[in-house]
Amino acid sequence: MSEDVAKDLINYPPKAWCRAYFDTQCKNLMVDNNFTKYFNAWILDARHMPIINMLENIRIKVMERLADYEGKAMSWNDNFSPPCMKLYHDYRAISHACTLKFNGDNGYEITEGKDKYTMNLEKKRCTCRLWDLSVIPCPHAIKALMHEKIEPVTQIHWWCSKEAYLLTYKYKIQPVRGVQFWKVLPSQAMEPPEIVKMVGRPKVKRNKVANEALKRKGISLYVVQDSSAEYANGDFFKNG
């Protein structure tokens, strides 16, 4: 898509930017570094507050978020998350266009268009690596599972289940009373940071106002409103 981007990517190992080389330890298709950017935007108002007010604002946001997401998970109609089920149904639709060849053991050769993939149901691995990366059976795995009379949806990992999501939001942040009721131990009191000497020579000269440099040299600016001939040449600058 971009020649310059392609040249830059060559300088980095493929396992850092190409999904085909990703480590399968991470079982999530959303592998990116947008978390920090999203979090900073989420606490945008709180970031400009004093430290205690900022932390209190973040605490309230997290407390409400946990309750909100637990309520959303409770409303799921399926035993798995809606994004997971949408991806599963898409994979299942693709599997109908695939053809299967079985070797009589645990090996399957799945043809999708002009490509062929090998599938091992015992190890739950496909050469497309999609099942390893997402814990959701890929189209080729679904084709093999249907051949074995196994319902593919039962092979979705527990991590995507409703039960797992509810456990994520099980532990809540408890409400607290106002700051006047806080009991702060002297050893835990929040003190301002120590003054640190900055790098570089300290500034000793103040910022000058406009035309201050000219005045120090004995030059003054006069605007003379006179129609006489002596000022007709426009020379309004006079030595002080």
Descriptive report:
The structure is a single chain. With 240 residues, the chain is of the alpha+beta class. It has helices at 3-9, 35-42, 51-74, 82-95, 130-134, 139-147, 162-168, 212-216; strands at residues 99-102, 107-112, 115-120, 125-126, 219-221, 237-239. The strands form two sheets. A four-stranded antiparallel beta sheet has the order 1-2-3-4. Strands 5-6 form a two-stranded antiparallel sheet. The chain is flat.
Can you lay out the helices and strands and say which pair or pack?
Layout (H helix, E strand, L loop, with lengths): L2 H7 L25 H8 L8 H24 L7 H14 L3 E4 L4 E6 L2 E6 L4 E2 L3 H5 L4 H9 L14 H7 L43 H5 L2 E3 L15 E3 L1
Antiparallel strand pairs: 1-2, 2-3, 3-4, 5-6
> What sort of overall outline do the alpha carbons produce when their principal axes are compared?
flat
In N-to-C order, the SSE pattern is: HHHHEEEEHHHHEE
Distance between the termini: 69 Å
Point out poorly predicted stretches: 223-234, 236-240
Task: Enumerate how many helices there are, as a single number.
Answer: 8
Helix amount, in percent? Answer: 25-40%
Strand-pairing-aware structural class: alpha+beta
Quick structural summary:
This protein has 240 residues and is an alpha+beta fold. Helices cover 33% and strands 10% of the residues.
